[in-house]
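for the writeup, i need someone to sanity check this before i put it in the appendix. the sequnce is what the collaborator sent (i think, or maybe the updated version? ugh). structure was predicted straight from it, no edits. if anything looks off just tell me and ill rerun, i have time this weekend
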Amino acid sequence: MKPGFLRTFALIAALGAGILVPQAYVAVWLVRWLIIGMLFVVFLQTRFSRKSLQPSHGTLLAANLAMGGVGWAIGWLAGGHSLALAGFFAGITPTATAAAVITGFLGGRIDYVVTAFMLTTMSVAAVFPFVLPWVLGQATPNVFSQVMGSVGILVFIPLAVAMLLRRIHPPAAQWPRRLSTVSFSAWIVALFLITSNASHFLRAQTEIPASTVWVIAAVSAAICVLNFGLGRLIGGREFSREASQALGQKNTSLTIYLALAYANPLVALGPTCYVLWHNLWNSWQLYRHREHDRRTRA
């Protein structure tokens, strides 16, 4: 059986198993460590320079912040204030830590996405304390410290360790090539646990009408399509793949937490549903990329 087929099957199986086995959500705490491990491998082969920061990063950041308002508008038109909040949290979410990992699998420039991740995360964290009281109608203390604390663990620790190891042992920069299968396997496990957690959360909201859940799912799907499409336009010919991934793949765990902490489970359904949409698109992208590589080698 061909490796490409096995990887495609593994992606589909991870999504399906996550939906069908919501009980696995109890192990979702492993996702953080899986992502830290994957990012460590990514950072071993990533070299940052002044060229890592591109003019399109500014446009990407502006689009990320504007999507909060766009999500609010879509949600408001779809069903009022609660759905507007669900759309807002789905739209304004910064770039996911795993976006760099997926970009690496797709053969894109990892440093571009890591720069976008840091830029959007820090900017959204700085904006949240001012924006959340306005959209929620209540104070939101300690948001900045909570966001930056999470970023410090997820990004800066594996980055520092990778840079130190590469300086002490330069051949370590070649490890990612040998660890590509391990990294992909870690992503499959993470995808299963993320989907399982989303499935459990959705099943637990028994007091929310199914029709409302479907509307929120549609709102988050519309935002997801806009993000990936707009990101591709912003990136242009040179960075279309990277910018699309940076704007489309979201750190939903952050906004799910904030929505639960400062709003309610109904609002948290916005970024929760987004988990399913961006992972479905990632699976399709990875499949197409492998098929393209297969045809090129044939």
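The mean pLDDT is 84. Residues 77 and 84 are 8 Å apart (CA to CA).
thx in advance!!
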